[in-house]
Design brief:
By secondary structure, the protein is of the alpha/beta class. The chain folds into 2 domains: 1-50; 54-219, Sortase, Chain: A. The chain contains 3 helices and 10 strands; from the N terminus they run αβββαββαβββββ. The strands form 2 sheets. An 8-stranded mixed beta barrel has the order 2-3-4-5-8-9-7-6. A two-stranded parallel ribbon has the order 1-10. The N and C termini lie far apart (83 Å). The chain crosses the membrane at residues 12-32. The active site is at 134 (proton donor/acceptor), 193 (acyl-thioester intermediate). It holds the Pfam family Sortase.
């Protein structure tokens, strides 16, 4: 199909601006996407209508046949979660926190709840439990907790309570804020980004420390 001079001129007037606009949009996107992606991620957390809870249908089996009849549970009796599994819930009644607890602290887990750092330990093993969570929408209320408040963790094998003993605000890269090697007492540590009012990268972390006061003990078999 051949176009006459007038038709070619009209097509040029249409296609050249469209092509120029398309190239400009692509260039602009490539330049600003690294900067806006963190902001959009935060916005999606704030604006999301979905707030997962442990009442979801696919979590109804989580607490079936809970092994609460004994203070001592053999390690072989519990279901060891794998990375990404929903294995419990965490709640702090004093500041109205109730959130899903996942094994692993990757992007997907922290989008849907709070996550147990894989290098730490499950509740009941008399070791350090390190749990991370985004300040928005889950852990911002930690700014209002008080020494002596109780943190509750429920799993399929038992319910645990921890009394808050201390809080600390520190540099995000300071690993001295927790000891994963200690075996003297079961300790629960929560942490989140700080300050809460800043949107985007935050260079500090708020740590909340608590000691176990109730719940079964897991006996590791030889």
């Amino acid at each position: 199909m051949k176009f006459n001079h007038k038709q070619r001129k009209i097509m040029a007037l249409i296609l050249v601006p469209l092509s120029f606009t398309f190239v400009c949009y692509i260039t602009l996107y490539l330049l600003i996407s690294p900067a806006i992606e963190p902001l959009m991620s935060i916005y999606s957390l704030i604006s999301s209508d979905y707030a997962p809870t442990l009442n979801d249908e696919n979590s109804t089996d989580l607490y079936a046949n809970k092994l609460v009849a004994s203070d001592i549970i053999k390690a072989s009796q519990i279901i060891q979660p794998t990375y990404g599994d929903l294995f419990g819930k965490l709640s702090i009644d004093s500041v109205n926190i109730r959130v899903n607890l996942y094994y692993g602290d990757g992007r997907e887990q922290l989008r849907n709840g709070v996550g147990l750092f894989g290098g730490s330990f499950l509740p009941g093993f008399n070791r350090t439990i390190l749990i991370a969570g985004h300040s928005i929408p889950y852990f911002e209320p930690l700014g209002d907790i008080k020494i002596g408040d109780i943190i509750k963790v429920s799993t399929h094998y038992g319910d645990f309570e921890y009394k808050i003993t201390d809080t600390k605000i520190t540099d995000a890269n300071d690993s001295s804020n927790y000891d994963l090697e200690q075996k003297e007492q079961e300790k629960l540590i929560l942490y989140t980004c700080y300050p809460f009012e800043i949107i985007g990268y935050k260079s500090q972390r708020l740590f909340v420390y608590a000691d176990k006061i109730s719940g079964p003990t897991i006996l590791e078999e030889q």
